[in-house]
Amino acid sequence: xxxxxxxxxxxxxxxxxxxxxxxxxxxxxxxxxxxxxxxxxxxxxxxxxxxxxxxxxxxxxxxxxxxxxxxxxxxxxxxxxxxxxxxxxxxxxxxxxxxxxxxxxx
Length: 106
Fold this sequence. Notes:
Elements: E1 2-6, H1 11-42, H2 59-98, E2 101-105
Antiparallel strand pairs: 1-2
């Protein structure tokens, strides 16, 4: 059993991992948002007061897809920034105070 300490985290690696994790969370949040926006937009056809505007109900689906794409992109950007910030905090503060995160390599 070999116990080693992680003294620093490469910032570019943290950026990549954070961006991928953020994009995955963006897919999850975006799917929820897509369903809600598409449902609201599709309900426009059921409102008789809209008359000829009811044809715009198809835009609800388009808006839902846009919400999904934006959520993925923003999730990746925010996740990458968060990963870099957390890695920098770990490298310059936490690792120096605590001696690093100890892991077991087998």
